[in-house]
C-alpha cells in the first residue's frame, strides 16, 4: 500500500477515535463533556432509579447544566447513573492525577475539592462514593442527599470522616420515601448541615413528564422535580465551589432550619 494511502488511513483512524471515545464515555454515564485544563473543583451528581444520566427532564441533570454555565471555568461537573459509581470513582481519580503518572500523590489528594449530590438511589450512591474516596484518603467538601433511598445492600445514613459537610433533604410519604436522618461518623470531622423535611401533601408540586412509576410514588417523584428544593441544592453547591460566596453565605445565614423544611415551605 502506498505511504500516502497509509497516512490517510492513520489520520482517519485517529479522527474516528477522537470522535467516538467521548461518545462511549458519555454512554457510560457522563452527562457533561471534556474537563477544563486546570481543574479546581469536581462536582459529581447521580440520578435516581433507572433514569438516564442525560435525561433533560431530570432536575439533577438540569442543575448540572446550570452549574456549567454559572460556575468558574476550573469546575468540572458530571452526572452519572447511580449504577455507574465505579465509573464516577475512576473519573475522579483521573481528574485528580495532575501529573498523569497513574497514581495519586499525597499532595494531589490533599488538593481535592469534591462535591457529591444525588436523588433517591443516586443520593445513596453519593454516600457510597464518599466512603470509597475515604478509603483512598481523598477528602470531600460536601455531600447532598435528596430523598435518599438505599439499595438493600447499601447504607446511606452515616457520613464518613473525609466529608467536611453533609446535608439531607427528605419527604416522609409514600411507599418510597427518603431517609429522615443522616449522622456523622465523627462529628468533629463532619458538619451535618441539617435533615430538612418537606411535605408535598401540604404543598404539592406538578411534575411534567411524569412516568407511570412516578404516579405510583407521587411524593418521591415530586422531590425530584421540585424547583424550590433543587434551587436550594444548587445554592449549597455553589457556596462550596466558590469560597468567597460561601463566606458571604455564612455571614448571612439563609439555610433552612433542621427538620422544618426549606425557606418558603411550611
Number of helical segments with 4 or more residues:
9
CATH-defined fold name: Rossmann fold
Question: Which strand-content bin applies to the residues?
Answer: 15-25%
First-last Cα distance: 76 Å
Helix percent reads 25-40%
Count of individual domains:
1
Parts with pLDDT < 50 across at least 5 consecutive residues? 5-27, 251-260, 262-266
Mean pLDDT, rounded to whole units?
Answer: 81
- CA radius of gyration is 20 Å
Which shape, going by the Cα principal axes? Answer: globular
Main pleated sheet: 6 strands, parallel
Secondary structure tally: strands:
8
Class, according to the CATH hierarchy?
A: Alpha Beta
- Major sheet: arrangement of strands: 2-1-3-4-6-8
Please specify the SSE layout and strand pairing.
Elements: H1 3-27, E1 41-47, H2 59-70, E2 75-81, H3 85-96, H4 106-110, E3 114-119, H5 121-135, E4 140-146, E5 158-159, E6 163-170, E7 183-184, E8 191-197, H6 212-216, H7 218-225, H8 227-241, H9 243-251
Parallel strand pairs: 1-2, 1-3, 3-4, 4-6, 5-7, 6-8
Tell me about this structure.
The protein is 40% helix and 17% strand. β3, α5 (121-135) and β4 (140-146) form a beta-alpha-beta unit. A 6-stranded parallel beta sheet has the order 2-1-3-4-6-8, sandwiched between helices. The chain is of the alpha/beta class and 266 residues long. α2 (59-70) packs parallel to α8 (227-241), α3 (85-96) packs across α5 and α8 packs across α9. The chain has one domain: 3-Layer(aba) Sandwich (Rossmann fold), CATH 3.40.50. The protein has 9 helices and 8 strands. The model is unreliable at 5-27, 251-260 and 262-266 (pLDDT under 50).
